[in-house]
Every structure is written in C-alpha cells, then in structure tokens.
Amino acid sequence: MSERAGLLVRAGGELGFVPATTARAIVRLPPISPVASTPLGMALVNGRVVPVVALGSPTNVLVLCELDDEPVGFSGLDVSEVGVFAASERGVVVGEHTVPELDLLGAWRSLEPVLEPQWGDPA
Amino acid sequence: MTSAAEQAALVGALERARRALEAAEATLEQARGAASRGETQLDVLGDAARGAPLRGREVRASLGLFYEALERAKLSALNAGLEAARLGDPAGKIVLELAGDLRELVSGALAALEAHSALLAEAERERERWLEGVSQARGTITTLAKFVNAGHQQRQELAAAFAAIEQGVAPVLGADPKTARLLLEVNEQSKALAQSVAALAREPGAPSAERVREALAPLLEALAEDDAR
C-alpha cells in the first residue's frame, strides 16, 4: 500500500488532507491586510509578501503552501495531525475514514480571474 | 419624714444604679476599643488585598510568556514533523515520531497552562468578592462605632441626670448619698453591737456586761434618737 506525507487539517469542521509536496510550513497567523475588490488578503511572512486565502473562521496559524511555484497562505485551517498516511484514491485513510485531499490549487486558481486587470473600470 | 428603712432602700437603689452606670461605661469603652481594633485589622487586610492585583498582573504576564513559548514550540514541532514526513523513511520516520512526542508534550503543557490561567482568574474573582466583604465589614464597624459613640453620649447624659438625682435626694437623706450610706452602715453595725452587748448581759455571771453597757450608753441613746427620727 502506498503512503502519502502531509497534514490533516480541519476547515469549518471538516477534516482535509494537504500533501507535504504542497504544504511548505505552518506559521503563526500574521496580520493580514485585505486587498481591495478581491476576496484575498496579503501578509508578510518571513520577509516576503504572500497572498492569503481565507478558508474558514480565523485560527491562530497560517498554512503556507506552494502553488504554481508561488507561495500562498491559507488561513482558517486548524492543523490536527502531521505524518505519513495510507494513500487512497481521493486522499488518505486515517483509521477507518477516508480524508479527502483539499483542492487548494483549484481554490487558488478560481480566484485568479478576480486578480486580472479590469479594463474599462474607472481608475 | 423618711424612715431609716426607706432611706436604706433609697441608698441601696442609688448604689445599684451607680454600679450599673459604671458597668455600662466599661462595656462601652470595651466596645469602642474592639471597634477601633477591628477597623485597624480590616485596614491591614484591605491593604494586603489591594496589593494583589499588581502581583496578579505579573503572574498573568509570565503565563503569557509561557503560552507564547509553548505555541512557538508546538509550531516548531509541527514544521519538524512536516519536514520529516517529506523526507520519508528511514530517517524521516524517527524525526516524525520525535516531533509527534514533542507536540504531545507541548499540548499537555498548554492544557495545564490554560487550567492555571483559569485558576488564576478564579482566584482574582475570589479576591474581588473578599475585598467587597471587607468593605461591607468596614461599613458595619463604622456603624457600630457610631452607635458606641452615641451610647457614650447618652451615658454622659445619664451620669449628669444621676448626679442631679443624688443632689435631689440629699435633703431627704439628710446628707449626700455616700455619707448617708456610710451612716446607715454605722447604724446597722451599732445595732448589731448593741444586740451583742445585750446578749452578753443576759449571760449569767457575766462580769463586765454592766460596765460595757454603761460605756455604750451614749451611743445607744444616739441610735434610739436616730431611730425615732
């Protein structure tokens, strides 16, 4: 049976899996500045400004991931476990339960259109 | 005219009233002393309790530092675990286990710290209730002191009234109450002496009874006159 390394996180009461290939680090939740006209926030993490996507009510940590070779922070996640788990088709198996992988890349890409310049909008 | 028995009753009543007045004065003084001591003790207790918030803030500040350090340690353990998981077998597995153990220990310490903070908060609430109790007790003692002072004033008025009564009864007794009491005592003791002499005289063969009676004759006459009056 194959295994997958990563994090088990709780987002809005639901348990999800974040692979170690995506999650880079867990840091204390820094001050987050909202970006006007977008659902995104910005935060300074280890001397670098990173976009922040809120996935639930704020917790005291920010899960720093790497998506499309760019660092992206996810707030609203509560890290409950870290380790190597039995792999399943949609995520990992913990005990008798299948924990689905969180589609962080999908969430991030769905926000990309709102970041495109809006031609014709008044400056 | 007042008889000797009535005078004796009046003098006795006055004597009892004076003693009661003196006892009341002593009790009032004791109450005043107790109220004063209670007030001082409450002041000391209040001062000690008022110093507690400062120490509470210091304890909370140090608990905050503990909490901060443990949170950082927990994050470090999580990140170490993440790196170890990425590393895979065999070295990664050992580090992962160590990181897991560390995270468990830190979680236990955090739970204990939270329990400690809750206890501290409870202790502070108890201190507040206690301070309120001290304040109420102080109010009660102040009221008590007012009553004691009022009692003292009333005692002074009573003493003045008593002095007026003594002055008023002096003509009735033929002397001031103290002298009258002494005269009554002399009267009583003289009567007892006369009775003893009479008993002695009745004894057969008593050699000197007649001579004693002669010696006491002026006194016995004076007593007889006093009784007649």
Give a quick precis of the structure:
The complex is a heterodimer of chains A (123) and B (229). Chain A has 123 residues and is mostly beta strands.
Explain what you see.
- The complex is a heterodimer of chains A (123) and B (229).
- Chain A is mostly beta strands.
- Chain A has a single domain (3-110), classed as Beta Barrel (OB fold (Dihydrolipoamide Acetyltransferase, E2P)).
- Chain A contains one helix and eleven strands.
- Chain A has one helix at residues 104-115; strands at residues 3-11, 14-19, 23-28, 32-34, 41-45, 48-54, 61-67, 70-75, 78-87, 91-94, 97-100.
- Chain A has a six-stranded mixed sheet, covered by helices on one side. A five-stranded antiparallel sheet of chain A has the order 2-1-9-10-11, with no helix packed on it.
- In chain A, a hairpin with a 2-residue loop joins β7 and β8.
- The longest helix of chain A has 12 residues, at 104-115.
- The radius of gyration of chain A is 16 Å and the shape is globular.
- Chain A starts with a strand and ends in an 8-residue tail after the last helix.
- Chain B is an all-alpha fold and 229 residues long.
- Chain B folds into two domains: 4-170, Helix Hairpins (Orthogonal Bundle); 175-229.
- Chain B is 93% helix and 0% strand.
- Chain B is built from four helices and no strands.
- In chain B, α1 (4-87) runs antiparallel to α2 (91-173), α1 crosses α3 (177-202) and α3 (177-202) packs antiparallel against α4 (209-228).
- The longest helix of chain B is centred in the N-terminal third of the chain and has 84 residues, at 4-87.
- The radius of gyration of chain B is 44 Å and the shape is rod-shaped.
- Chain B starts with a helix and ends with a helix.
- In chain B, 8% of the residues are buried.
- The mean pLDDT of chain B is 83.
The total beta strand count of chain A reads 11
CATH class assignment of the largest domain in chain B = Mainly Alpha
Distance between the termini of chain A: 56 Å
Write down the overall mean pLDDT of chain B. 83
Whole-number mean pLDDT of chain A: 89
Rounded radius of gyration of chain A (Å): 16 Å
**What pattern of helices and strands is seen along the backbone of chain A?**
EEEEEEEEEEEH
CATH superfamily of chain A: CheA-289, Domain 4
| Structural class by sheet pairing and helices of chain A | mainly beta
* Number of structural units classed as domains of chain A: 1
Please state the structural category of chain B: mainly alpha
* Biggest β-sheet description of chain B: none
